[in-house]
Amino acid sequence: MAKSSKTEKTERQKLIDNTLRKQRSAEKRRGNLIVGVAVFIALLMIGYASYPSIRDAFKDNQYSGTPIAEIGQSASVCQKVETKEASDVSNHVAEGQKVPYDTAPPAFGPHWNVAGVAPAPFDRKFYDEGDRPALEALVHNLEHGYTILWYDKTIADDADKLSQVRAIAKGFDSDSDNANFRLKFIAAPWLDSDENGTAFPDGQHVAFTHWSGTAEASTGVWQYCSDVSGEALQTYMDDYPYTDAPEAAAT
């Protein structure tokens, strides 16, 4: 017996409804898949962007509580200390004026004198390429008795070695509102743009500088190292303390 027209319409409608339902389900699955992939990619991007900071924090943590002299290599990676008669105590030039220092890095020379800028603030012990003060500001820190550890691109591009530099700098952090002058230390990158025809000696990637002496007679002091050495730095700062500087009483 032939199906009635009404029955055929009902079955066709069921077929249409079922087809539409399957299409909507498939579209929903595709939509969920697209969202899932997008979220996955976003998480990968976030993870990739945050990986360096997570990695650095993990590496830095391994030096927690380690004495400065035990961070990095032994003092044998460093050359003998070099000295040179210094000049330009209190020779202040205008902010923004570039000084053509003839050593890499400078240990003395003309410099800026701007409150909060030059010298660089006492509470900052570590700088990277993105926030390092101008050389003309850091030279003023040297005049006040600071020791600066300069590290080049070879160190900056090595996560392990840079972590050692950060750990050394952290050892000079002050937990007091009062400036402890024994903590006059800064770690800062030496940039290609700083060279001005000068460069670290071949094979040397770290340098210590200090402006020694008095306002009447002063000396620039350098020591170059092929690697990071907290041991060498400790000896250097014992030999050339913050008190040995033209303006040691200033921060």
What would a concise description of this structure say?
This protein has 251 residues and is an alpha+beta fold.
Can you walk me through this structure?
The model has no long low-confidence stretch (mean pLDDT 90). The protein has helices at residues 5-61, 135-143, 153-156, 159-170, 230-239, and strands spanning 82-85, 147-151, 185-189, 206-213, 218-225. The protein has a 5-stranded mixed beta sheet with strand order 1-5-4-2-3. A hairpin with a 4-residue loop joins strand 4 and strand 5. It contains 5 helices and 5 strands. It has 2 domains: 1-61; 70-239, no CATH class. It is α+β, with helices and mostly antiparallel strands.
Which helices and strands occur, and which strands form pairs?
Blueprint: H1 5-61, E1 82-85, H2 135-143, E2 147-151, H3 153-156, H4 159-170, E3 185-189, E4 206-213, E5 218-225, H5 230-239
Parallel strand pairs: 2-3
Antiparallel strand pairs: 1-5, 2-4, 4-5
Number of strands: 5
Termini gap: 107 Å
Helix-strand pattern: HEHEHHEEEH
- How would you sum up the global shape? elongated
